[in-house]
Amino acid sequence: MRVWTGSDVAVVGHSAVVGGEPLVRRARRWLRDVVERAAPWVEIGDVDLLASEVLTNAVRHTASREPGRSVVVAVAWEAGVVRVSVTDEGWAKSRPQVRTASEVAEMGRGLALLDALAAGWGHEVGPGLGCPVTVWFEMKEVRA
């Protein structure tokens, strides 16, 4: 799989803002630009929605929410497959898993969306104190 390197790997600090934009919005904008260049066949609305869910989880449930902390967003691709990865700073109270949300719940549907829209998804727990987690999802080219 080819991996974007250098300026194509985004490290987005939670407490940092550019033009008043919060982390998730900045990361999504960067991701849209990269994916549109790497895989113009991808349904960018689906990528944007799934990235928003994964980024929001990283910020909401881990140490990435704290000032000065960050998430790392990366894109890899090969013929017909693009993979988006989001790595947090760790210290989550639980690991990513699909839950059944009640009809009135305001949260709890993000990973179900990954199940429904992505060709595949998963997570990897990193080493070290706090155990950073990378959540990834893949989108495949669909030929008509």
UniProtKB/TrEMBL annotation:
Histidine kinase/HSP90-like ATPase domain: residues covered: 24-118
GO MF term set: ATP binding
Q: Which InterPro entries match?
A: Anti-sigma-factor_SerPK, HATPase_C_sf, HATPase_dom
* A Pfam family assignment: HATPase_c_2
Top-down, what is the taxonomic lineage of the species of origin? Answer: Bacteria, Bacillati, Actinomycetota, Actinomycetes, Streptosporangiales
Q: Name the keywords, alphabetized.
A: ATP-binding, Kinase, Nucleotide-binding, Serine/threonine-protein kinase, Transferase
**Could you say which residues form the signal peptide?**
none
| Protein name per Swiss-Prot or TrEMBL | ATP-binding protein
What is the superkingdom listed in this entry's lineage? Bacteria
What is the originating organism of this protein? Answer: Actinomadura parmotrematis
Query: Is Cell wall biogenesis/degradation set as a keyword in this record?
Result: no
